[in-house]
Design the sequence.
């Protein structure tokens, strides 16, 4: 058992919560005065993020006895321990500019197996920086990271709330209140940083390319978010960037009055974009490692085989998509089943563990919402609505491509519940927009949830 939470965490935690909520209330009151339609969601959504950080920390401490989150924290403590010797050494380690085999740094680099992994090490570096202000205590660091990550989630909410001001409550529930996102998207994880980056990247690019706001803040946030995602989880960008480009293009193409000309331009753009994207994957495959076009299928096959070996030890957690050849064509034959497993599984009877059962409830709600739209709105109207709204197209393209990517490569419901969280708000948004573009506002899509 790798226990990393001690009594100091519980002593310091209330003080850091007080600081976070002081800052949060001050920011809310300054930005959203009374009667502002967004005001009532700010504190409650932040509280869920904070709860998620504490909850998942306790689960990993007392249920799992450690995990990748504890390794990030341990790496961070190793980095900060170098400050006792030299600030220059600390800076070289936190920025990962020191060679791992340099004798001057080997005392530290030899303790960190992720020093050669830029994605994992960046999480440790960010954690180390936050640890400076939290006395190297796990729980305070977790809630601080949750607060930082919340800014990205809120930025995503602002993007769509500004676009659809009559749908603020449904959009808030889709973006701010999905359980998986505030549990696995908080604390000391890669996912926390990715949710931050994804929210700000969406906000920044929308402000720049659609609203033509070229302020330094928007440019800086977009570049920072893009860099974080590229380092931590490149595959998010592989689904997000094409969808984003299509969103911007389709938004501008709506200005073409003639329908035939508009469709022709769209098809040409799609064809060129797919060609450029495939060329990009081939040309830069060596730099993208397992995310290159010729490695994705191989990675999926290896993961599938490994999960099969441990499935007996992880009863209730593993899943199988069936046999397919380890090629891109073979993977595409599993497109529907991979998307299905990400968005709609585990089914209730597949949940052998409590955490998997909670995930199955969420998946069941997504399936119920999808089926309700298909039956109550109808296939024809659903397709027409998607075709006419660039925002719905963006949300669906990203969420379905991403769902396929993680569904075909995870093979474990526990891991999948974390990996899939970037696409859940976007899929939920697409469902909400399809529904309310065809139904009156007082006809709720899911009355049980208040939307």
Sequence:
């Amino acid at each position: 058992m790798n226990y990393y939470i001690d009594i100091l965490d519980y002593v310091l935690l209330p003080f850091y919560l007080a600081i976070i909520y002081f800052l949060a209330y001050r920011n809310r009151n300054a930005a959203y005065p009374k009667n502002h339609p967004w005001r009532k969601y700010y504190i409650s959504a932040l509280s869920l993020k904070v709860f998620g950080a504490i909850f998942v920390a306790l689960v990993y401490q007392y249920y799992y006895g450690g995990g990748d989150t504890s390794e990030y924290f341990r790496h961070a403590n190793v980095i900060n321990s170098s400050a006792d010797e030299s600030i220059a050494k600390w800076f070289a380690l936190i920025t990962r500019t020191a060679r791992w085999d340099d004798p001057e740094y080997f005392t530290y680099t030899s303790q960190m197996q992720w020093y050669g992994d830029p994605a994992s090490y960046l999480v440790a570096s960010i954690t180390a920086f936050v640890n400076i202000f939290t006395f190297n205590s796990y729980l305070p660091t977790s809630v601080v990271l949750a607060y930082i990550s919340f800014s990205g989630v809120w930025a995503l909410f602002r993007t769509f709330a500004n676009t659809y001001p009559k749908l603020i409550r449904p959009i808030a529930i889709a973006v701010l209140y999905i359980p998986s996102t505030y549990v696995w998207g908080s604390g000391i994880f890669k996912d926390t940083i990715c949710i931050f980056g994804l929210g700000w990247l969406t906000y920044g690019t929308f402000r720049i390319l659609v609203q033509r706001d070229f302020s330094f803040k928007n440019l800086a946030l977009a570049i920072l978010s893009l860099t974080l995602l590229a380092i931590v989880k490149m595959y998010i960008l592989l689904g997000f960037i094409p969808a984003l480009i299509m969103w911007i293009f389709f938004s501008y193409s709506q200005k073409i009055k003639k329908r035939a000309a508009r469709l022709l331009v769209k098809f040409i753009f799609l064809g060129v974009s797919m060609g450029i994207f495939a060329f990009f994957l081939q040309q830069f495959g060596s730099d993208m490692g397992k995310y290159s076009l010729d490695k994705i299928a191989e990675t999926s096959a290896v993961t599938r085989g490994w999960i099969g070996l441990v499935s007996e030890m992880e009863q209730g957690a593993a899943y199988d998509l069936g046999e397919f050849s380890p090629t891109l064509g073979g993977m595409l034959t599993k497109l529907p089943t991979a998307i299905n497993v990400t968005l709609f599984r585990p089914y209730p009877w597949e949940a052998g563990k409590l955490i998997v059962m909670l995930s199955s409830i969420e998946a069941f709600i997504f399936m119920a919402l999808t089926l309700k739209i298909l039956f109550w709105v109808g296939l024809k109207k659903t397709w027409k609505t998607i075709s006419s709204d660039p925002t719905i197209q963006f949300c669906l393209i990203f969420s379905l491509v991403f769902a396929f990517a993680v569904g075909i490569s995870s093979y474990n419901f526990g891991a999948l519940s974390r990996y899939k969280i970037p696409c859940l708000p976007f899929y939920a948004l697409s469902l909400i927009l399809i529904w309310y573009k065809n139904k009156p506002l007082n006809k709720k899509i899911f009355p049980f949830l208040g939307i």
About this structure: Residues 284-291, 306-316 have pLDDT under 50 and may be disordered. The radius of gyration is 22 Å. The first helix runs from residue 7 to 31.
